[in-house]
Amino acid sequence: IGLHPTDSMIIYVGAGKGLCKTTVGGKDNWPTVGLDTFSPRAIVVGQENPELVYAGTHKVGVYRSSDGGQIWEEVNTGISYPEIRAMVIHPKNDQVVYAATDGGGVFKTVNGGDSWSEINHGLIDKVVRSMVMDPRSSDTLYAGTWHGVYKTTDGGKNWSADPEGLFDVDVRVLALDPTNPKILYAGTQPRGVYRSEDAGATWIAGTKPLMEHIESMAIDPTNPGHVYVGTRAGVFVSTDKGDTFSSAGLRWSNMAWTLVFDPKTNPTTLYYGGVGGVLKTTTKGFQWEVTGPIRP
């Protein structure tokens, strides 16, 4: 799911039938705007120019649109492994984008996708399933891999995994506390959620771990102690920084591929994308509303 930075009605969703876009906040209006057979997995929208959209796809690399999704062009020069799992865009420079791949490590562009460079020095595990950027220090990024969490503080030139940190664990998803980027959460398989309060140096497991296969995670921007996780058995929420979890109202035997809060335009709205379609809640999970008939 990709959100427009200033208009909460504009949402992009990757689906099996391509990239869908709504300009009315969902409802029943989700036309496909391209990439019909490419199964977009990761979507980032320009923060300076919201008409600029990047889509990372399953096995065919990265595509770029400069007109809000109407026309797409392949931008894979330098990407040697085209199976994209996650993307991160610089908060103040739309030309700088990172792409995490499912076997080729991390690639970076500084010219809006015209060319990419492999940035894997120190990144021993190149199966990267999740990536987050410190919003206060854009050269600091974390990568969740098959074998733990790696960190860079120089924009990807060098990566390292702290031996005292979360190492040799299958990390599926990462999330940063929006009010304190030193607090970082990692969703793993099948060991539940871990929390770091020192920028990834050390990690704490929950007192009652959620022993589910975790696929997605989102931190409530209005109450960062509330952590939502998407699993193969629905959505769960913790109100104590990941120590304990309870159901967030969706108890399905379906994967929750994506959970995204809209922190800029509507911070109380949480979106779900998964086998159940696209849903949203404005009541912290007590009630969910179907926003369209999409099946991602």
| Secondary-structure content class | mainly beta
Described by strand count, sense and barrel closure, the largest sheet is: 4 strands, antiparallel
Rough outline:
globular
What share of the residues does DSSP label as strand, in percent? 35-45%
Amount of helix: under 10%
Major β-sheet strand ordering? 4-5-6-7
Are there runs of 5+ residues with pLDDT below 50, and where? none
- Summarize model confidence as the mean pLDDT: 92
Kindly provide the radius of gyration, computed on alpha-carbon positions and rounded to a whole number of angstroms: 18 Å
Write the H/E string, N to C.
EEEEEEEEEEEEEEEEEEEEEEEEEE
Helix count from the secondary structure assignment: 0
SSE diagram, text form:
Elements: E1 2-3, E2 11-15, E3 18-22, E4 40-45, E5 53-57, E6 62-65, E7 73-74, E8 84-89, E9 97-101, E10 106-109, E11 117-118, E12 128-133, E13 141-145, E14 148-152, E15 170-176, E16 184-189, E17 192-196, E18 204-205, E19 214-219, E20 227-231, E21 234-238, E22 246-250, E23 256-262, E24 266-274, E25 277-281, E26 289-292
What does this structure look like?
This protein is mostly beta strands and 296 residues long. The chain is 0% helix and 43% strand. It has a four-stranded antiparallel β-sheet with strand order 4-5-6-7, with no helix packed on it. Strands 8-9-10-11 form a four-stranded antiparallel β-sheet, with no helix packed on it. Strands 15-16-17-18 form a four-stranded antiparallel β-sheet, with no helix packed on it.
